[in-house]
Automatic annotation (TrEMBL):
InterPro entries reported in the protein's UniProt record: Fibrocystin, Ig-like_fold, Ig_E-set, IPT_dom
Name of the protein in question: IPT/TIG domain-containing protein
Chain segments carrying region Disordered: 1-87
Domain IPT/TIG: 122-192
Phylogenetic classification of the source organism: Eukaryota, Viridiplantae, Chlorophyta, core chlorophytes, Chlorophyceae
Species whose genome carries this gene: Chlamydomonas euryale
Amino acid sequence: NGNSGNNARHLLANSNAPGQANVDSPPGNSENAPGQAKDGNDDDDDDTASEGDVDTASEGDVDTASEGDGDTASEGDGDGDSSTVAESGRHVVRVYVHPYGYAQYNSTLGNAPPAVNVSSVSIDSVHPTALHPAGWTIVHVDGVGFSSECGLNALEIGGVPCPVISCNSTLLTVIFPGNGGADAPSATVTVSILDAADAATAIDSAVWNSTLEISTAAAAPYVAAVVSAPPDGAGGLLAATLGGSLTAEAVTEAFLLPLPLGDGGGAAAPTGAGFASAWAARVRCNNHTVGASAASLECDTGMLPSASYFFGVAFAPAAAGGSGGVVVFASAVAVEATVELMLVQPATGSIGGGTRLVVTGRGFPPDAARLAVMLHVPVSSTFPNGIIPCDVDAASLGTGTLECVTRPHFAADASADDPAAARIAAS
């Protein structure tokens, strides 16, 4: 399947870097400078800003600030184009003097740079439009005026705070963590833009009261439980139960999201910035099969690097009311993958090689060709790294053992009183 990115239409939005603003550079050929008519006619043109026009240095703003009256800036220029709407928040005011450029702020005067509160945030749509109370569903909120600094966007669905995992000025991507099982046939979505200097203060907010249903009876898909999973990083079959009004064709992808081993404690799925990095490192759960009633799913995890993994499923648009794909997660760690060495026998062997070592541990794949065992030997000019391979020729997933045969490791610098060249210092 390689279409999971399309099915989850804008799963993770590309965030603008904080502090990047179109107005940070004097207008070039592709942008009209204040004081210049857009159509090239005289200065009476309706679109012309007067010389000395006050411009808010908002992120993503395109010369849409108020005319220097010190009041709160309004929402863009009213033409309905979201690309000209400044981000909500507190923004410093700068003055552009045509044709010389932006006036410099003189900090020696002791007064703070002038600033205005920009109020432009609004919500246009929310996807998906049906959620299950069990939660752990990715939700996309389209609109204008959002902050490019994800931490300044506070979003709630039905009164439940939803961590923002990705953002830009027109799209917020959040995780709905569930609401404890309560039905909400018409849930309200609220977004607030916080003051960077005081996170307890909201500079602007917007409410969306359209059709968003949170209900156990809704068709919204969810992962009911992970029934069984491989015990470690060796990989194997993972089985889960699904809920919602689904068909076997609705499942487009199954995958695992890694967090550092032990993170989450098996109690909570990844949220916030941690989710974005986990999503980028996700591992596909291969060859997924769905039961005839679409209530069960099985897939092969394959060998996994050491980490804690959450299980997720991507569904086709039909599973989300025809408005685009939807992605949901199990609410707890599904696999604790650990590759671990517990015992190596025998403890001694010949520098001439040929010693068979039996290594006991867990997380070993059954395919010996996928294993590499390295042994530390004395550093010398012959073995400058102090490492040689031990050739693996057997592995057993059931017993957690592997076997390898050592290679000769005579050192060219060996002598009668230093046969292993152990006295040769590393360079």
